[in-house]
Amino acid sequence: MIKLENNETCFVQLWLRLERTRQMFGMQYKRFCIRRVMQSWLGSEATDEMVWNVCQLATGHEYEPVFGLDILPAPSLHPRRSREFLRALVAVKLGIGIRKVNLKALDRAYSIAFPNSTPINVSKKRSAKRRGLENEEDEEEPP
Description:
It is a single chain. The protein contains 6 helices and no strands. The protein is mainly alpha-helical. The protein has one domain. The chain starts with 7 loop residues before the first helix and ends with a helix. The mean pLDDT is about 85.
């Protein structure tokens, strides 16, 4: 059983535990999915209703529902689906709304847990750099 909190230290532990669970399931030839991860972490507390609630909150888009047996990608390579899963799990377990989960702390924890992996907000960082480069190019042009 794990104790969940809405802070950065707990989120770092969750990210690392998620990666260890993925590796363990890979060695056991088990499916790395939301249902199995929750059953592994929470034991008998992970009921069908709780898994369903987590899946409903983890849905990224209206047209892309998440199901309990959908395979999760590796957290270090494709972090967004795993982030939504962890965010939904914390929200359901603590009984708070999904918007109350500290998303900035969750993203910082990802950067701490996987310092050399793909950043979560790649498009945001690139667009910020592009905006910065465009502004510098405009300043360098002679009048």
